[in-house]
Amino acid sequence: MQNRKKLILLFVILTFFNVQSFAQAKDKIAKVVIDAGHGGTDPGAIGAKGQEKDVTLAVALQLGKLISENCKGVEVYYTRKTDVFIPLYTRSKIANDKHADLFISIHCNAAENKLARGTETFVMGLHKTTSNLDVARKENAAMLLEKDYKSNYGDFNPNSPESYVIFSLYTNAYLHNSALLASKVQRHLLKCNGFTDRGVQQAGFWVLHKVAMPSILIELGFISNKEDEAVLLNKDSQNAMAVSICNAFIEYKNQIEGTQIPLLAEKKVSKTVEKKVDIREENREEEKSVNSEEQTTSSSSANGLCFKVQVYASPKEIAVTDKKFDGIANVEKYCENEVWKYTVGSEPTFEKAQAIQKTLKEKFPDAFIIAFKDGAKIPISEARKLSN
Ligand SMILES: [Zn+2]
């Protein structure tokens, strides 16, 4: 009996020790793995004039170069440095084998709707909208190009929504740090490329799911959109975007380590491209209506009901990537009676929203829960009755 107790105690200590050593994001950023999406036989998304794999490689190499040159002591590793096919599981294995402190995956988006455009940065988690699931599906589908894909991914089928249930069991121990970096990347990238802000999002990416460190996946823009593509394929713009991501990295490193590495001079995408960006405005309204439809149908539960945590309100509109919301995923905004309101999460139950409210307590002590039915705000008491 005595021995058994000792054994249990030892087990508890070991478990605690393990959880602590694996789950805590380190306070030093000494190694970073940069992952250029796709490559070789996998072109990724295809635009009218170029391919995703070339854009991601150009930005990844430039980003790595900038980090090496400007952040002394940081080791930079790449999952690929040339146009080769690298399986998804190999990409995360490289990061884990190197015991990296950060994993940055670079991609471009594409959509059937040629008007869809903009920059978004993902952290690992369960998708809240069908459009987020679609992005994860597209990126995970790279595994289908592997010869023996079943032996590496088991029964996971990237195209089946049911497969994504496994991610609901996953707890992201690095969510805070990942979202912190993601917010910074969004802010710096948008300043540079002037694209539509699609925010910091969550979805089940195989490559992020497997890495044991804070990680993000950047969708620079839509290669399927003419104006985004022009920027994505432009060499100067690629370099400018790499500078922006590098600055986000420096800001993150400074915040975590308390260092004061100066930021690089940021560049905006080149003038000829900027002109084209202005033309996009004509299409803006059209895409907006597509987007808002997507939002209401996908972010609410089957009964059209959803609970959100309101964290901030202001008569002045600010971006969902504003510094205020650093480290928080799924920030949304809406306007009510000429006041802009900022919310986090979109949950099927009051209890789930409460759990989110708890995590935000320190930053937003006055946050409270609001409810929507079929996209319209309703009293919380009514919503709770409906959800029971
Ligand atoms: Zn991709």
How are the SSEs placed, and which strands pair?
Layout: H1 2-23, E1 31-36, H2 52-70, E2 75-78, H3 88-97, E3 102-109, E4 119-124, H4 130-140, H5 149-153, H6 175-193, E5 197-203, H7 206-209, E6 215-222, H8 226-233, H9 235-257, H10 271-279, H11 281-299, E7 305-314, E8 331-336, E9 339-347, H12 350-359, E10 368-373, E11 376-378, H13 380-387
Parallel strand pairs: 1-2, 1-3, 3-6, 4-5
Antiparallel strand pairs: 4-6, 7-9, 7-10, 8-9, 10-11
Helix pairs in contact: 2-9, 6-9, 8-10
Bound molecules: zinc ion (ZN).
Zinc ion binds at residues 37-38, 44, 52, 107, 139.
Task: Write a brief structural summary.
It is built from 13 helices and eleven strands. By secondary structure, it is α/β, with parallel strands linked by helices.
Structure description:
It is a single chain. The strands form two sheets. The protein has a six-stranded mixed beta sheet, with helices on both faces. A five-stranded antiparallel beta sheet has the order 8-9-7-10-11. The N and C termini lie far apart (47 Å). It has helices at residues 2-23, 52-70, 88-97, 130-140, 149-153, 175-193, 206-209, 226-233, 235-257, 271-279, 281-299, 350-359, 380-387, and strands spanning 31-36, 75-78, 102-109, 119-124, 197-203, 215-222, 305-314, 331-336, 339-347, 368-373, 376-378. It is globular. The model is unreliable at 9-23 and 273-300 (pLDDT under 50). The protein has 13 helices and eleven strands. It has two domains: 24-257, Zn-dependent exopeptidases (Aminopeptidase); 300-387, Alpha-Beta Plaits. It is of the alpha/beta class. The structure holds zinc ion. Zinc ion binds next to loops.
